[in-house]
Specification:
One of its GO terms (cellular component) is Golgi membrane. Pathway: Glycan metabolism. It holds the Pfam family Glyco_transf_61. It is found in: Golgi apparatus membrane. With about 525 residues, the chain is α/β, with parallel strands linked by helices. It has 2 domains: about 50-325, no CATH class; about 350-529, Rossmann fold, CATH 3.40.50. About 30% of the residues lie in helices and about 15% in strands. Strands 1, 2, 3, 4, 5, 6, 7, 8, 9 and 10 form a 10-stranded mixed sheet that branches. Helix 11 links the parallel strand 12 (about 360-365) and strand 13 (about 390). Helix 1 packs antiparallel against helix 2. The radius of gyration is 25 Å and the shape is elongated. The termini are far apart. It binds 2-acetamido-2-deoxy-beta-D-glucopyranose (8 copies). One 2-acetamido-2-deoxy-beta-D-glucopyranose binds near residues 347, 349 and 430. The site of one 2-acetamido-2-deoxy-beta-D-glucopyranose has 8 residues, from loops.
């Protein structure tokens, strides 16, 4: 197929982009198997356009920035996941092909348990079940849904016991209407990236064993610890070391699942990463009043009145209020984060130019790839236009809480496509996020990852697509090379080529006049006279 008109080549782009993204898991698998790259690199390379920033190389031109030059948190810079990944039309097999929503006894055989909302509503009526006895009277309910595209999830209540070391959750004496003998044992990898098989291998499998009324078949172990709050079991495996993935795969889904308990919930982590737990401690402490339990190392048998295995993910870096049974929005999530990190500014309000106010702009500066070769000029141009600029290189990234404050103190964030842009979650409402898209027909995938979600965040989105004149690829390839004449043909060669050339293989030299124009426009939009 040849790209003809502009229009048909656009279509082709999308087609290929989709195809490429859909192939990602395979590519990851191959690389994992060959074991020729460290995990992080594999993730960076293939599962997303992500990569982890190496330490700063010292060549940064820091800009005086009102004492916040420590700035950044681009750490796991990288990113990218594609729309294909979450758009059921392109990515998801038809739900019926995936499974059987009643498979684990989720829906009621008698038809009186229509959905999870209803199940949860019943919670209050289910008091009074002893958790320590092995009595046979039905007293538990089990509701699983294996039909979601992004995750498998089970909610159990009544007499539920966990034995972390064994990786097992026991549902004792499930009621008739929620129990299927043939599904007495189900397994879940509690990481919401189900469509990426290789990623899922990085998350431990949790086994849920349920017994029916009167059944002694599972012989559940006796409780050694009894909790009076629900538990949420999730994994910090997967791609969690990447900032974009940490937020999209864990932090948001955890919020969706655990927030409603208002702190009275026990978080239980499989594939426990001490580093991850430390890094996201603010979020974890805001969600739960209790220290996190390391599931894999836990030899106690813990009894809970209710347990969720798996966390609820709706889309990349977003929340679908319709799917959220509490009707949460991404704005709510951002308010939650603001509170978790004690951030001061809820809103970015227009700055009065007449009184000499300067709106603040944080510029994310990457190293190694997709770096701005003329970042000093770019920073100067933004400052000249009237912004107070915070230049945020990867070197000061370590302290996430600190960088959250820096971002929150700003009205505008600017950065080349990469995980660092995930920091936009900390911008005040009505803030502006500008994504610089590298050369190579990358507009659509980049938009899918960061642009699409921006309005739901209550932010304004600005896109700056680098031209052929603005990429360092022009120092490497002649202008009649397909890299310039037909970037889509590079996409077609597979994701590794795309990565190598367009994501890992270029820096951006901004056309400063053009860039200044964008800065002026944004400045107009965030100021008044
Ligand atoms: C920058 O970070 C260092 C080390 O974390 C800290 O001591 C210093 O106070 C920070 N500077 C600013 C301006 O926040
Ligand atoms: C759903 O489960 C029932 C029994 O629980 C089984 O008969 C049916 O084949 C399953 N359907 C699918 C699509 O797996
Ligand atoms: C539930 O049981 C049915 C019938 O035995 C089986 O086809 C299905 O795969 C099971 N589902 C799960 C999630 O184990
Ligand atoms: C689920 O059940 C509740 C309570 O009966 C009802 O209000 C709600 O509309 C139902 N939701 C769906 C998606 O069916
Ligand atoms: C399970 O998930 C599917 C797909 O989102 C949804 O259509 C279905 O209603 C859910 N089933 C239950 C029992 O909640
Ligand atoms: C946020 O932006 C909207 C649209 O530009 C504007 O109407 C609203 O007044 C702004 N809110 C605040 C608090 O500045
Ligand atoms: C901006 O400040 C000037 C001078 O103090 C004042 O006259 C003007 O009303 C202010 N504009 C707005 C929109 O508040
Ligand atoms: C991009 O710039 C960095 C220095 O900031 C350099 O180390 C790297 O090799 C450059 N990459 C490309 C593809 O030009």
């Amino acid at each position: 197929m040849k790209a003809g008109s502009n229009e048909s080549s656009k279509k082709l782009v999308s087609g290929w982009a989709l195809a490429v993204w859909l192939l990602l898991p395979l590519v990851v698998l191959v690389v994992l198997k060959t074991d020729c790259l460290p995990q992080v690199t594999v993730r960076q390379l293939f599962a997303q356009f992500s990569f982890t920033q190496p330490a700063g190389d010292g060549s940064v031109n820091k800009v005086p920035s009102s004492g916040t030059e420590n700035a950044t948190q681009q750490e796991a810079v990288g990113v990218a996941r594609l729309k294909a990944a979450h758009d059921p039309v392109v990515g998801a097999p038809p739900p019926t092909a995936l499974s059987n929503e009643t498979a684990a006894g989720g829906a009621d055989a008698n038809g009186d348990l229509k959905n999870q909302t209803e199940l949860l509503a019943m919670n209050g009526e289910r008091d009074g079940f002893g958790v320590n006895s092995d009595v046979a009277a039905p007293r538990s309910r089990l509701s699983c849904n294996f039909s979601f595209y992004r995750m498998n999830i089970c909610t159990m209540e009544g007499d539920v016991r966990t034995h972390g070391k064994a990786g097992t959750v026991y549902v004792v004496s499930a009621s008739d209407d929620s129990y299927r003998p043939e599904n007495g044992t189900v397994t879940i990898r509690p990481y919401p990236r189900k469509w990426e098989k290789p990623t899922m291998q990085l998350a431990r499998e949790v086994t849920i064993r349920s017994s029916g009324p009167g059944a002694a078949d599972t012989a559940p172990p006796r409780c050694t610890v009894t909790h009076d709050v629900p538990a949420v079991v999730f994994s910090t495996g997967g791609y969690s070391s990447n900032f974009f993935h940490a937020v999209t795969d864990i932090v948001i889904p955890l919020y969706n699942t655990a927030r409603e308990y208002d702190g009275r919930v026990q978080l239980v982590v499989t594939d426990y990463s001490r580093k991850w737990i430390a890094k996201y401690r603010h979020v974890l402490a805001a969600l739960s009043a209790y220290p996190v339990i390391d599931f894999d190392a836990d030899n106690d048998v813990r009894c809970f009145p209710k347990v969720h295995v798996g966390i609820e993910s709706h889309k990349e870096l977003g929340i679908n209020p319709v799917l959220s049974h509490r009707g949460y929005t991404l704005m709510d999530f951002r308010d939650f984060l603001r509170s978790a990190y004690s951030l001061k500014r809820a809103w970015s309000t227009p700055v009065n130019r007449t009184t000499g106010g300067r709106p603040r702009l944080v510029m994310l500066l990457r190293r190694h790839s997709r770096a701005l070769t003329n970042e000093a000029e770019a920073v100067a141009a933004a400052a000249e236009v009237g912004f107070e600029v915070v230049a945020a290189g990867p070197e000061a990234v370590r302290d996430m809480a600190h960088f959250a404050e820096v971002v929150n103190s700003c009205d505008v964030m600017v950065g080349v496509h990469g995980a660092g842009l995930t920091n936009m979650v900390f911008l005040p409402h009505n803030g502006t996020a500008m994504q610089i898209i590298p050369w190579g027909e990358m507009k659509w995938p980049c938009w899918s990852i960061f642009g699409e979600t921006v309005p739901d965040m209550g932010l304004r989105y600005v896109e700056y697509e680098a031209t052929a004149e603005e990429t360092t690829l022009k120092d490497v390839y002649p202008r009649d090379h397909p890299v310039f004449t037909n970037p889509v043909s590079i996409h077609k060669q597979g994701f590794d080529q795309l990565w190598k050339i367009f994501l890992d293989g270029q820096n951006v030299t901004l056309d400063i006049n053009r860039f200044r124009g964008f800065m002026q426009q944004i400045y107009q939009d965030v100021t008044v006279t």
